[in-house]
Structures are given as C-alpha cells and as structure tokens.
Design a protein that fits this description.
two-stranded antiparallel sheet; disordered N terminus; globular; 8 strands; alpha+beta; 27% strand
C-alpha cells in the first residue's frame, strides 16, 4: 500500500497501517501545534503593528491595547489587562472596568476624547503613578468583536501637536 505522509511516500503492508495511523496523528499534531505557535506570534505582531499605526496616525506619544481580563468573548469580567503598552517594559497594567477612561469606554462601548485629563472625572491617576508617565491627553476607542461585543479598548496618549479630534477617532 502506498501512502503520502508530508512529502514522504510510504510503502506499507496491512500490518503497518495501524502504526502509520498513529504516526499520521503525531505528524498532524506537530503540524497543528507549529501552526498555533506561528499564528500566536503573527497575531501578537499584528496587534503590535495596529497599535503602532494608531499612534502614528493620531500623532500620539504612546498607546495601550487593553483586553477583557478573561478574553472570553461570551462573558463579561471585571478587569482589563494591557496586552501591549508602548513606552513601558515588563509592566502589566490592570484596571477595573469601573476605573478610568478605558473602563468607561469598555462599559459604554463609545469612544472618548479627552484633551485635558485634569478636567476629566473619569481619568484614573493610578496608572500614571504606577508607570511614572504623565498623561495629559487621551483618545480611547472600544475594540469590537463579532456581533458588536466589546473585547477591549485601544488608548493613544498625549498627541504631540494639537488636540485629539474626531478625525483621530476615525483613524
């Protein structure tokens, strides 16, 4: 019996079919695992690139992408975790969905522009205290999944020239 496994042609008799089936399963498992690893790295790279493009398009100094803590599309949980945050190293930002502009955007599913955090009651100073960064301006936009489910928030901070506006919000 001839059988292709990957790019190998195997010649086997009836006694070898059971062994080949296990071998085929193992090869499929290895291939599937490698694909998952590749997809995860590509996904992280893609998300990082999206954040970089948003920062560039809006003229912001830095940004963060927050995801629902559980990353379970079907359920709502209480915290947002930073998936990618530019300008900080080895720090994870965790905020309650009842805190800050990102929490408000997550809850309300609406974008928020703030060009003076000192005048915004929703701004949460705890993140600046933790990171040592001074936020002045924020543009936050909800990240939607299938059927409009919000799975996170993208925030860009401190536009370097001028204020954030509706044009930046659409970027």
């Amino acid at each position: 019996m001839e059988r292709w496994v990957g790019s190998l042609l195997l010649l086997a008799g009836p006694a070898d079919i059971k062994i080949m089936s296990k071998s085929d399963e193992l090869l499929k498992f290895i291939g599937d695992s490698a694909q998952l690893i590749f997809d995860q790295q590509a996904g992280e790279s893609l998300i990082s690139r999206i954040l970089d493009l948003c920062i560039q398009a809006t003229g912001a100094d830095r940004g963060t992408i927050f995801f629902d803590s559980q990353f379970n599309i079907e359920q709502h949980f209480k915290y947002l975790n930073s998936y990618i945050a530019t300008g900080i190293r080895n720090q994870n930002i965790v905020i309650n969905t009842d805190q800050g502009i990102a929490g408000k955007v997550f809850r309300n599913r609406k974008s928020h522009i703030c060009n003076s955090v000192a005048d915004d009651e929703d701004f949460y100073l705890g993140v600046d205290s933790k990171t040592g960064y001074r936020t002045v301006k924020v543009l936050a936009v909800p990240l939607h999944w299938k059927e409009g489910k919000v799975i996170g928030v993208i925030e860009v901070l401190n536009k370097t020239e001028g204020d954030f506006d509706e044009v930046d919000q659409r970027a």
